Amino acid sequence: MNDDIRAILKEHGRLAVGVETLKDDSDLYEAGMTSHASVNVMLALEGKFDIEFPDRMLKRGVFESISAMRAAVEELTAGR
Q1: Whole-prediction pTM value?
Q2: pLDDT tens sequence across 26-61
Q3: Is residue 55 a contact partner of residue 71, using CB atoms and an 8 Å limit?
Q4: How many angstroms separate the Cα of 75 from the Cα of each of 19, 22, 53, 66?
Q5: Other beta carbons within 10 Å of 39
Q6: 3-class secondary structure for the chain?
């Protein structure tokens, strides 16, 4: 799953650094991701994993790191 998230970040994150240089817990906003880019990342995650982020997850912390996104996707795909 991390590889899929990294691929999405590479395509949609508009990061100032290479995604391959980031740790799973690196702050993506410090790495250059904007709030606009995070929306594009969210939409790409929804498409890739066939999920929909509920309102309660539409906050900065959910998209702040690869680890946080993985945890959110795992929660939304649990039981499949």
Answers
A1: 0.95
A2: 999 999 999 999 999 999 999 999 999 999 999 999
A3: no
A4: 23, 23, 10, 14
A5: 13
A6: CHHHHHHHHHHHCCCCCCHHHCCCCCCCCCCCCCHHHHHHHHHHHHHHHCCCCCHHHCCHHHHCCHHHHHHHHHHHHCCC
Chain position carrying tokens 């929660």: 75
Distance CA 30, CA 52 (A): 26
First to last CA, the chain: 15
Domains of the chain (ranges; CATH) run 2-77 (1.10.1200.10)
- Please report, as a single letter, which amino acid is at residue 80: R
